[in-house]
Amino acid sequence: MKQVIVVNEALLLPRGKLAAQVAHAAVDALTCAPAKIQQAWFAQGMPKIVLKAESEAELLQLETLARKAGLPVALIQDAGHTVVKAGTITCLGIGPANAEAIDAITGQLKLLK
Amino acid sequence: MKQVIVVNEALLLPRGKLAAQVAHAAVDALTCAPAKIQQAWFAQGMPKIVLKAESEAELLQLETLARKAGLPVALIQDAGHTVVKAGTITCLGIGPANAEAIDAITGQLKLLK
């Protein structure tokens, strides 16, 4: 079990803004998962990985694939009060779900360091 | 209603690491909140603020105050596989809870930008 959050790194969001958006994706995607999956993920220490994509288009493609695979998905758009334009897609949360099912979609992405 | 995550900025964590730790705090603190509070926070769009503290000691003080106030609290220690020493306290999640109750504890802290 794991959860992955993919960041739109084209935006180069500042650290605090990025962290808030990733947290938003993590919570939102979690609420889309069945209770049994949530519990299993909690029991494993809630493993969570932050990856990077190069564009909004790439995030939308990943979202489509994840939805087709039946995984919990949350696409995060910023309200745009501060750093970015309203409606900007900042990140995508996938899971918690089976790690192999997620890797089939995000396995080629690099870790955000 | 809101949730606050306070980051140990003495560590100057890299962006990806920071985002993962903040997401961890957000989910963990959420699970400590009563279901009714969780629902009310969801209904309001899950407002979430990332603030900064200057040291681990400051995070521990804030944790004590938040626990005394009966707020949902999650203190996050890193497993230490990569960037920091195992057991390092990276951040503190408080809430979701009444915004005024949280502000009484974190109101003097600055936004992490």
State the main characteristics.
alpha+beta, Bit1, homodimer, five-stranded mixed β-sheet, 5 strands, 4 helices
Written overview of the protein:
- 2 copies of one chain form a homodimer.
- The longest helix of chain A is centred in the N-terminal third of the chain and has 17 residues, at 15-31.
- Chain A has one domain: Bit1.
- Chain A has 4 helices and 5 strands, in the order βααβαββαβ.
- The first copy, chain A, has 113 residues and is α+β, with helices and mostly antiparallel strands.
- The model of chain A has no long low-confidence stretch (mean pLDDT 95).
- A 5-stranded mixed beta sheet of chain A has the order 3-4-1-2-5, sandwiched between helices.
- The first copy, chain A, has helices spanning 15-31, 35-43, 56-68, 99-106, and strands at residues 2-8, 48-53, 73-77, 89-97, 110-111.
- Chains A and B meet through α1 and β2 of A and α1 and β2 of B.
What is this structure's SSE topology?
The structure is a homodimer of 113-residue chains.
Chain A: E1 2-8, H1 15-31, H2 35-43, E2 48-53, H3 56-68, E3 73-77, E4 89-97, H4 99-106, E5 110-111
Parallel strand pairs in A: 1-2
Antiparallel strand pairs in A: 1-4, 2-5, 3-4
